[in-house]
UniProtKB/TrEMBL annotation, chains A, B, C, D:
Domain HTH tetR-type: residue ranges: 16-76
InterPro entries: Homeodomain-like_sf, HTH-type_TetR-like_transc_reg, HTH_TetR, Tet_transcr_reg_TetR-rel_C_sf, TetR_C
Organism, as annotated: Streptomyces rugosispiralis
PROSITE patterns listed in its UniProt record: HTH_TETR_2 (PS50977)
SUPFAM superfamilies assigned: Homeodomain-like, Tetracyclin repressor-like, C-terminal domain
Protein name per Swiss-Prot or TrEMBL: TetR/AcrR family transcriptional regulator
Protein origin, superkingdom: Bacteria
Keyword tags: DNA-binding, Transcription, Transcription regulation
DNA-binding region: 39-58
Length: 209, 209, 209, 209
DNA sequence: GCCTAACCGAGACGGTACGTCGGGTCTTGGG
DNA sequence: CCCAAGACCCGACGTACCGTCTCGGTTAGGC
C-alpha cells in the first residue's frame, strides 16, 4: 500500500471531538424537535462549536443527520446464512423492523427520506449511501438463494427487493408517527410472516410441475 | 337535511379567481423550483394576491399543494369490474403508474409525502385525504375479489394493499428524480406484471389441495 | 400646493414609533459602547424591532446615526444678527464649541466623520446633509458682514470658513477622547477668542491706509 | 554602551521579508479597496504569510497601516531655515499639501484618522506617533520665528498650529474623495497663500503702534 | 340606498434562521 | 523560537420568509 491518500497537508487537523459532538447534537435535536426544529445554529449551540465548522464539512444539515445515523445506529444488518431463503428473509425483515420501528431511528429515517425528496443534491447522496447499501445487502441474500437453488423460479430478485423495501418504507412513511411510547409491535411481525409466506410459498406450483 | 351548511354569512364572498390562481401558482412553483422554492410570498406574488388571502384559507403551503393536486390531476382512478382480481389489479396498477410517473405529478406527490413526514399536522391531513382514499379504492377491488371468490386463500387484502402501495411509493421515492424528459416507462409495467403474477398465481397451490 | 409628494401608496404605513426607537437606541449604543459596539442587531434588540426594519429605511448604520443626531441634538445654531462680524463669529464659535464638546455629541460626531472617510457612500451623504449645512450657516454670517461692510478687506469668506471649521474639527478629532467627566472647558473658549481676534483685527491695516 | 538592546534571544529571528511584505500588502489593499476591504486575512494572503505573524507583531491592522505609511512615504518634511516665518510657513504648507493631496497617501491618512476616532487604543498611538510629531515639527518653525523676532506679537504659536493643521485636515477630511486622477491642485495652494498672508500680515498694526 | 361585515391587494412589522465573512486563538509540521 | 497553513469558536453581517398586523378599497346581502 504505497499510495498515501492524504498527502500530509499542513495546518491544524480536523477535530474528532467536534465531529462527534455535532453528530450527536443533530441526532438529539431531530428526535426531540423534529426536522423543522433542527437548525444549524441549534446544532452548533448544543455541540459547542461554530457554525462554520458544520458548513466546512457537510453540505447540508440532512447530510449531518445521515452521518449521525451511521454513527448512532449501526445500520449493518447481519447476513448470516440460515440455510434457506425463508430463514434469511425472516432475519432480514425482523431486524429491519426492529431497527426501523425504534421511534428515534424511525423519526430520523422518515426525515432523511423526506429530505431526499425535497433536496435533489441530498437525494442522490441518500440513495447512494443508504438505499443502495440496503439493497446490496438484500442482494446477498437473494443471490445466495439462487446459488442454493431455493429461490423461487419464475421470479426475479429485483421484484422481491422492491416488495420487501416497499413494505418496510410504506409502513414507516404511511403510518401515523408513534405518539410517544412503543406502540403495537405485533402487527409488523405478522406482516413479515405473511410476506415471507408469499415470497417463498409461491415457488410450489413450479415444483409441483 | 334542511339545514344549510353555510349559514348565509353576510359580507363579500370568497373570490374563486383568487383561489384557483393560488392553486395554479403553487403547482407551477413546485414543479419549476421544487419545494424549497415554494414560498407563500412567491405564491402570492405569482397569483397576484395578498399573503393574508392564503393564510386565511389554508393552514400551510403543503395544504395548498394538496388542494392543487386535487384541482390539477383528477386523482380518481377508475374501478370498473373487469371480472377477475388479476384484471382489476392490472388496471389499478397501470393507471397508478401512468399517473405517478408523470413528472409533474410525481414531483408534487414526492413533495407531499415528504412534507407529511416533516409536519405532523399536515401528515394527518395527507393520510386522511390522500393515502386513506387510495387505500379505500384498493379495498373495493379486494372485497370484490373476495365476494367473487377469486381472492387467494390464506392471504389478507391488507397485505396485498401494502405490497401494492409499497411498490408504487418505493418506486417513486427511491428512484432518482426524472431529469427532464420522460424516461424509461417499460420497467414499471414489467414490475406491475410480475407483481400481479405473484399476487394471483400464489393461490394455485391452495386450489390444488 | 396642488402637488402631492406622496401618491397615497397602498399598504401599511411606516411606524413612527419604530423609527424613533431605532434612532434612540442607535444614539445610546454609540455613546455607551462606541462605534465598534454599535451593531444592527444590537440596535434592533434594544429598539424592539426587526433588523429588516432598519435595513428597509437606512442604507447603513452610520446613516441611522446621522438621523439620530438630527433627532437628538437640534444642530441648528442661531444666526441672530449681533451687529458685527466679530459678535456673530463669537456666537457661532461659542455655540459650536458648546455643542461639539458635549461628550455624547462629540463622540457621535467623531464617529460620523470617521465613517464618512471609510464609507464613500455615507461620506457623500454626510457632506451634503451635515458639513454643507454647517458651511451654509457660516456663509450667512459672512455675507451679512460683507453687506454690512465690516468683512475684512483682502480676504475671502471661503478661507474664514475653512479656518473656523478646521479649528473646530481639529480640536474634536486630534484631541484625546474625554475620559469621563467634563474636562477643561476654558481652553477652547480662549482659542475662540484668539481666532476672532485674528479674523477681525486683521482689517485694521487697510483702514489705516 | 556595551549593553545590547536586544538581549540576544534564542530561536529563529524575525523575518524582515515577511515584515515588508505585510506592510506593502496592507498599503496596497487600503489604496485599492479602502479600509473595509483591508482584512487581516487579506493581508496575510497577499503577503504570503500566516495570520499569526501579523498578530504577533502588531496589535491591530490600523497599526500595520501606520507602519506602512512610515515605510512608504517618508513623512519627514524639511525644516530648513528660510529666513522668515512667512517663508518657513510657505514651505511647510506646500510640502504638506503635496504630500497630503497625493491620492494614495491621502486615502491612507483619512483611514488612519478615521480609525483613530473609532479605536481609542489606536487613537492614542496615532496621536503620539503621527499628530504629535507633525505638531513638534511646526513648533520648530514657530520657535525659530519667536527667536528671530518675526513671530506676530499678541498671538500664540499654539493657535497658529491649530489653524495650520485644522486647515490641512479639514481639506482632507471634508472634501469628497478624489475620483481617480489628480484633481484641481491650484485651489489648495491659493488657500496656503491666503493663510500665510493672514498669519504674517496681522502683525503690522502692532508694529505701527 | 345606504349600512356593515367580510373580503381583497399591498406592504410594513417583529422574528428566526440562513449561509458567509472576518476576527482572534490554537495546533500542526517544518526551518 | 519563528513561520505558513489552516481548523477552531465566535459574533455580526445582510437576506429570505415566516406569520401577523394595519391600511385603503371593493363587494355584496340586509335593513
Amino acid at each position: 500500500m504505497p499510495s498515501v491518500p492524504e498527502p500530509v497537508r499542513p495546518g491544524r487537523k480536523r477535530s474528532e471531538s467536534s465531529r462527534t459532538a455535532i453528530l450527536t447534537a443533530a441526532w438529539e435535536l431531530t428526535v426531540e424537535l423534529g426536522y423543522p426544529g433542527l437548525t444549524v445554529e441549534g446544532i452548533a449551540a448544543r455541540a459547542g462549536t461554530g457554525k462554520q465548522t458544520i458548513y466546512r464539512w457537510w453540505p447540508s444539515k440532512a447530510d449531518v443527520l445521515l452521518d449521525a445515523l451511521a454513527l448512532k445506529a449501526d445500520v449493518q444488518i447481519g447476513l448470516d446464512d440460515h440455510g434457506s431463503y425463508a430463514a434469511d428473509l425472516r432475519q432480514f425483515l425482523d431486524r429491519s423492523f426492529v431497527l426501523g420501528l425504534n421511534p428515534s431511528v424511525m423519526r430520523v429515517m422518515r426525515t432523511l427520506m423526506a429530505q431526499a425528496q425535497i433536496d435533489p443534491e441530498f437525494g442522490a447522496c441518500f440513495r447512494e449511501q443508504f438505499l443502495a447499501r440496503r439493497r446490496a445487502a438484500f442482494e446477498v441474500l437473494a443471490s445466495r438463494a439462487v446459488e442454493r437453488g431455493d429461490f423461487p423460479a419464475g421470479r426475479s430478485p429485483a421484484l422481491d427487493a422492491r416488495l420487501v423495501f416497499g413494505l418496510l418504507w410504506y409502513e414507516v412513511l404511511a403510518a401515523p408517527p408513534p405518539l410517544d411510547s412503543g406502540s403495537a409491535d405485533a402487527a409488523p411481525h405478522a406482516l413479515a410472516d405473511a410476506l415471507i409466506d408469499l415470497l417463498t410459498r409461491s415457488l410450489t406450483p413450479e415444483e409441483l410441475a
